[in-house]
Amino acid sequence: LDSTPDNATEELRISTTSSTCDTGILDLLNKEFENANNAKILTVCQGTGKAIATGEMGAADVVFVHAPASELTAVEKGSFINRTYVMYNYFVIIGPGNDPAGIRATENAPEALGMIAGKEQPFISRGDDSGTHNKEKAIWMAANITPSGTWYQSVGKGMGDTIMTADIREAYTLSDRGTYLAMKDKTKLVILFETDKEYLFNPYHVMAVNPEKFPDVKYDMSMKYINFLTSTEVQAIIRDYGKDKFDEPLFTPALI
Amino acid sequence: MGSFEFLLDGIVRAFELIVTLNPYILSITGVSIKVSGTATLLAAMTAIPLAFALSFVQFRGRHAVITLVNTGMGLPPVFVGLFVFVMLVPAGPLGFLNRIFTPEAMIIAQYILITPIITGITLSAIKAVPEPIIETVYTLGGREKDVVLTTLLEARFGVITAVLAGLGRALAEVGAILIVGGNIAYTGSVGGIGEGLSYTRTLTTAITSETSKGDISTSIALGIILIAIYLFVNVAAGFFRRQD
Amino acid sequence: MGSFEFLLDGIVRAFELIVTLNPYILSITGVSIKVSGTATLLAAMTAIPLAFALSFVQFRGRHAVITLVNTGMGLPPVFVGLFVFVMLVPAGPLGFLNRIFTPEAMIIAQYILITPIITGITLSAIKAVPEPIIETVYTLGGREKDVVLTTLLEARFGVITAVLAGLGRALAEVGAILIVGGNIAYTGSVGGIGEGLSYTRTLTTAITSETSKGDISTSIALGIILIAIYLFVNVAAGFFRRQD
Amino acid sequence: MAELFRICNLTKTFAGKDVLKNINLRIYRGEIFALIGPSGTGKTTFLRILNLFEKPTNGIFEFDGKPVNGTPLEKNRIRQRSSLLFQTPAVFNLSVFDNVAYGLKVRGFDKSTVEKKVKEALGIVGLSGMETQKARTLSGGEAQRMAFARAIVYGPEVLLLDEPTANLDPYNVAKIEELIRHIRDKCGTTIVIATHNLPQVKRIADRVGVLLEGKLIEVNSVGGIFTSPGDARSAAFLKGEMVY
Amino acid sequence: MAELFRICNLTKTFAGKDVLKNINLRIYRGEIFALIGPSGTGKTTFLRILNLFEKPTNGIFEFDGKPVNGTPLEKNRIRQRSSLLFQTPAVFNLSVFDNVAYGLKVRGFDKSTVEKKVKEALGIVGLSGMETQKARTLSGGEAQRMAFARAIVYGPEVLLLDEPTANLDPYNVAKIEELIRHIRDKCGTTIVIATHNLPQVKRIADRVGVLLEGKLIEVNSVGGIFTSPGDARSAAFLKGEMVY
Ligand SMILES: Nc1ncnc2c1ncn2[C@@H]1O[C@H](COP(=O)(O)OP(=O)(O)OP(=O)(O)O)[C@@H](O)[C@H]1O
Ligand SMILES: Nc1ncnc2c1ncn2[C@@H]1O[C@H](COP(=O)(O)OP(=O)(O)OP(=O)(O)O)[C@@H](O)[C@H]1O
Ligand SMILES: [Mg+2]
Ligand SMILES: [Mg+2]
Asked: For residues C169 and B74, is the Cβ–Cβ distance under 8 A?
């Protein structure tokens, strides 16, 4: 078996998070890019923290993640350049349909989590320093609660696994909309809270590994990729992705 | 951060975590030892008798069973984890036991993984015991149990190797226990190392989650603790094995 | 979906994938075999001579080295993966080799993981060869190489077990190769089974990613394929081992 | 005299080679029966059949009036009453004391009785004071005497001796011969001895069987066979001539 | 006559026990030197020292005019020229042919020479036609004769024989004795033989050494020792009396 397609000219290594992989959108976009640029894309899907670390050590050319705070720290250190806003969606709080903590009725995310903590209903935290986990921590902070007790369980896993765990435990958890929709038919959990645009905002950025730090990275190709993601055509693809399968889009393009 | 610094940092971190007797680290270390130790004990208690039965009891299809056992040495942990998972989830046939995401579930998964390993290596240790030794046991009036005891004595180096290989595999294993145990830690552990207590989080599953956070130094520190534990066991076993 | 249905579905799916010679599955199976096969070959070529050296060459600290080797049986895969990762990333000491996220990196990681396993089991197989056999080689004028060949012959059951255990471990391993290989498949395959070709995706890493997507049936199908491969190897090896 | 072994038309085939051919023989309680014949003639095979380590290919084999079927239970029952001293004794990786104590411990004798009997047996064979030595370091003749002590220490009803003095000096040979006669005289033990030492046969045996190429060509009293052998080839063998 | 072995004040201690005490002896080229003495007296240990399997605790040991230091190279050089037939021969898990061919193959003889010499040697010891039998299935005496063939087949300059006829019948004993004399007469081979068979000593030896409790109490010509032994305890031993 020849695993390298014939006319591939240049390889581009993307380090990204499980949500872009597991929803399938990256696959679609990459295929477009490859066809247009006669390139070969190698995608490494991992936790956001590891995805950024991989770029920081020069093992990727371009990084596509959703943890704004960590991204900015890395950019300040000079590891990445040209950080570009690509798309966003919203986090959702999911849980058992009967909503024992009664969060459906709440006004904002901190209040919702506050209800869960108050009733000590099981809550599964990703606990993996991912964008989602950081967002969750920020909401707890805003609610002025330090979650503690056996109802609050950290699993240190990706989104899909975390949803599966919460499903079995009949627990609440915070998820990105895309992964939840992709797994919707495999879980009994339902979206209980999603109205808070302030606290549940989930932006995705792409950035190039700094060629001054790692001269061997494919900086030109990375820039092509970044420009590609922000092009009108691709933004339109993002806008429509998921409509047929989930009746609603998974992401909202940043630029159109 | 340069690459070597991760290693150095990991080593320093490991010492730090150990000397300060960090309660979070102690608790995940405890879960590691408890789960893998119990699984190894149960596996050895199954595997050693099984290896003897396969060595000494003649029956049709014996070689087929041996081949199957040996094949069990290559069971993919994630596969075993999934299998135990679908058995134990509430919707599964053993769901009523309510054991998914518990240390017991992890013990079951590791038990399935390492029993064939201990059996396979013990089998080859038993095979190396000369036939005349066994015949001598019989002619002196010994029964099957005496054959087993004497063979154990003669093959002890190999049997100890088998059990240690099983323990090493269990301690190092992550794929199966991550799925069935869920890598759960209680309270306060949100922020990372230093707070909270493990429920089903082991050194290996903690390494995995620290790694996915990108915290390579802490991962390396945890790895060093794990290796130190196994080194200690091996040094202890070395004294038993050497005296002959 | 009920729990048993995952299993049944997995089995059906496995047959489907195999009989249709699905090119994506073929390519990840190919990578699995290539990576683990090469790693096992290289590890055996290191481990067997090493085991002989540790058995027959007397030197200070021999027992300490043996203990270290045995301890290597418990190296956590994720730890080894991280170690190889920090060595091979461009920022690392071996970054110039440009080998991170390649099959070669995976081979290196598995090599490190299984060499101690093969060495440890081979050591105990060699130990079981009676001393008079070795003395007879010497008195007949044999040299060290003849001792090695004859010991190999006498201990072949144990040595084959050692290599098979190493291969089984390599084929089933996921923690290390996930980190250093990156589970990369060329575009088209990310969205699911059926398209694209593997670059560094193996059966085990594919199981992991399918599982995290929640596609348990496909994971089980991949696991069945993996076990079938290893079963085939064991059946083949059974013929060698049995003839005595 | 009462019959203890009754063998009718017994044949034993190994790999297509008839090693024992149509043997008819009765061995009586309390007699010393010597089995002689050239090397490779089937003596050891015959003794192994009497101790149930080989199954006759054909023919009838009765012990103490009952046909022998070879179930594990029956094997143990018969072996509890008898003892085979192998031509090349296997030595357990234990002290001299524990080797000799083996058959006593298996039979559940209490500690002080074991100690007393072992000391006595070691004294008789001239190994007093060597109790704690590792049995694997004994000289050839010492090992043979230890194995003799191990075989007689629990007072078996039947003693099957395969070249019991091959590695002994004249003084020790005489001592063991005296011991054999003494055991028979005092305990009425039935003794079957395979030996190449013809003067020994003269000194201790009551009856003699001559095996030649698997056939029992003559069974005679010891007086008869040395003075007027009933077969020309027996006579030739006794004179040290070539008989095949 | 030229000296081949020269031993001065040689002592060998095992576990604090002096097994050989202050031995002084020269063995000459082309002689047949018999070593006799009670079981456990140190004969085997002495032969093992001559073939460099034991290092003297004290004293001087020269071979062919040069002091022996025991480097691996020197060991092989001396063993290439000599051959020790162990008291209990170890048998390789090979055919009879391949066992006997071992020393020839090690020395790089071509295939047809190997075939010719092995056939010849098997013929001499009476094992023609058994070439393809697995050597581990040979009878005690057959194994001893095969080991004899294996030791002489490549024509060593020095032949060290430890009880070479212990398991043989009178006819085969006579044949092996004839062979020993023939080898010495035709090839000038130096032969050291440890034996309990005193008539054998008379038949084949030139000189005799009597070992008693690790001391060489007498060295004498074979004529001298049987007619007028120089030591009272030698005389007693030759008469089969207790000497310790
Ligand atoms: N490692 C050891 N530790 C203690 N004693 C030992 C060791 N090795 C050998 N011996 C003792 O050394 C003595 C001499 O042994 P050796 O084998 O040389 O005797 P031998 O003269 O060949 O006797 P045999 O005629 O019975 O074969 C024996 O008493 C034996 O028990
Ligand atoms: N598994 C086997 N396959 C082929 N031949 C065998 C097997 N086992 C034994 N034999 C042969 O059976 C014959 C009888 O062996 P046995 O050991 O009974 O002889 P023995 O009379 O005790 O000889 P010795 O006096 O040399 O000890 C031998 O020629 C031996 O080679
Ligand atoms: Mg025999
Ligand atoms: Mg000896």
From this structure: yes
Any alpha helices (H) in C20-143, and if so which ranges?
A: 23-56, 62-72, 77-88, 103-127, 131-139
Which one of E36, E40, E142 has the shortest CB-CB distance to D141? E40
Interface of A with B in 34-73 (CB under 8 A): 46-54, 56-57
Q: Do E38 and D172 touch (CB under 8 A)?
A: yes
Contacts with E76 (C-beta within 8 Å, 6 or more apart), sequence order: C138, C141, C143
- What is the dotted CATH code of the domain comprising C3-243? 1.10.3720.10
Contact indicator for E80, E116 with CB cutoff of 8 Å:
no
pTM of this structure: 0.91
- Nearest-Cα residue of chain E relative to residue D199: E170
The per-residue pLDDT for range D209-222, each reduced to its tens digit, is: 999 999 999 999 99
**CA-based nearest distance B57→chain D, Å:** 11
- From the list C202, C36, C226, C30, the residue with the least C-alpha distance to C114 is C36
How far apart, in whole angstroms, are the C-alpha atoms of residue D11 and residue D17? 11
The residue whose C-alpha atom lies closest to atom 31 belonging to ligand 2 is E138
Residue B189 C-alpha, separation from nearest chain C C-alpha, in angstroms: 21
> For residues A208 and D225, what is the distance between their CA atoms, to the nearest angstrom?
104
**Domain residue extents for chain C:** 3-243
CA distance A12 to D187: 92
What are the residues whose beta carbons fall under 8 Å from the beta carbon of A1, sequence distance 6 or more? C23, C26, C27, C30, C197
**CA D24, CA D34: separation in Å to the nearest integer?**
15
How far apart, in whole angstroms, are the C-alpha atoms of residue A11 and residue A61? 10
Q: What are D113's two structure tokens?
A: 């009785």
CA of E118 to the centre of ligand 3 (A): 24
- pLDDT digits 0-9 by tens, A81-121: 999 999 999 999 999 999 999 999 898 999 999 999 999 99
Ligand with the closest atom to the CA of D143: 1
Nearest to B242 among C63, C172, C223 (CB): C63
Tokens of E15: 């576990």
CB A47 within 8 A of CB A18: yes
ipTM: 0.90
* Token code pair at residue A118: 């108050």
Query: What's the gap in Å between E47 CA and the centre of ligand 3?
Result: 26
Provide the residue-wise pLDDT of chain C in tens; the chain has 244 residues: 455 677 787 788 888 877 887 888 899 999 999 999 999 999 999 999 999 999 999 899 898 999 999 999 999 998 999 999 989 988 888 888 889 999 999 999 999 999 999 999 999 999 999 999 999 999 999 999 999 999 999 999 999 999 999 999 999 999 999 999 989 888 654 444 445 788 999 999 999 888 877 777 888 889 999 999 999 999 988 877 665 4
Residue owning the nearest CA to atom 18 of ligand 2: D42
What's the pLDDT score for residue A196?
A: 85
Structural contact between residues E122 and E148, judged by C-beta atoms closer than 8 angstroms: no
Token duo for residue B79? 């596969």
Q: Measured from the CB, is residue E35 less than 6 Å from ligand 1?
A: no
- Sketch the domain layout of chain E as residue ranges: 3-238
On chain D, the residues whose CB falls within 8 A of the CB of E144 are: 39
Size of interface C-E (CB pairs under 8 A): 56
Is the CA virtual torsion A167, A168, A172, A174 positive or negative? negative
- Closest C-alpha to ligand 2, atom 13: D40
Contact E107 C153 (CB under 8 A): no
> Which residues of D fall within a CB distance of 8 Å from E133?
15
Query: In CATH, which superfamily holds the domain spanning E3-238?
Result: P-loop containing nucleotide triphosphate hydrolases (3.40.50.300)
CA distance B25 to chain D (A): 44
Chain B positions touching C124 (Cβ under 8 A) are 121, 125, 157-158, 161
